[in-house]
Amino acid sequence: MGSSESTRSRPDLPIRLGVLVVGDDHPRACTGRRLVRLGLAEELRGRSPPRERPIVLDPYAERPLTAQDVPTAETGGIVAVDCSWNRLADGQGPARFPAGLARRLPMLVATNPQHFGRLGELNTAEALAAALFVLGRAEQGRSLLSGFAGGETFFDVNRERLLRYAEGASPEAIVAAERALFESA
Q: pLDDT tens digits, residue range 14-30?
């Protein structure tokens, strides 16, 4: 098998998902714990990285998630740090998992009951589903949110944005799409 063949994208294979549960959210409202309980994501403990370097979703990372990140996601997976938005504001969230490649999601609107209508304040399940969609795994993302309140609404509300971001082949294309989508809002 040649090197180009071994690095080729495999959209038929699901991307592994990991959740680092910080534990400061109410257990019933914690979508990360629910994903773990349902067997849709692996719970990561402490700072120990998975087998390969993952993408770590970080709302404060400079670089947005793009199609360029597909090979990393396919080998290392995607990790979300499940913690309170207050903890993220203090810089304590994704910094607890330094072994990964920090990427921010492009701007999206939350539809979960706690943050409905807020720009960027996605819960863990929404964030992972959006990341999957952007990386060309729309069906895996839809499946992930299928059992959550507001799950289908998330895709309805963000349809145009998700489609544009999934087309963005570079960070510059994502930033341009964000500007075009949110300047008139």
A: 899 998 877 666 666 78
Q: Which amino acid is at 108?
A: L
The torsion of the CA quartet 150, 146, 124, 8, rounded to 10 degrees, works out to -130
Residue 78 has phi, psi (to 5 degrees) of -125, 135
Q: How far apart are CA 17 and CA 40, in angstroms?
A: 7
Instruction: Indicate the number of domains in the chain.
Output: 1
For residue 18, what are the β-bridge partners?
Answer: 42, 79
Token pair of 11 as six digits: 């959209």
DSSP string, 132-143: HHHTT-HHHHHH
Low-confidence ranges of the chain (pLDDT < 70): 1-12, 23-28, 46-51, 84-98, 184-185
Domain extent for 163: 3-182
Strands of the sheet with 101-103, listed across from one edge: 42-44, 17-21, 78-82, 55-57, 101-103
- Among 127, 168, 175, which residue's Cα sits nearest to residue 151? 127
Q: Which residues are within 8 A (CB) of 43 and not within 5 positions of it... i.e. 6 or more apart?
A: 18, 19, 20, 21, 33, 36
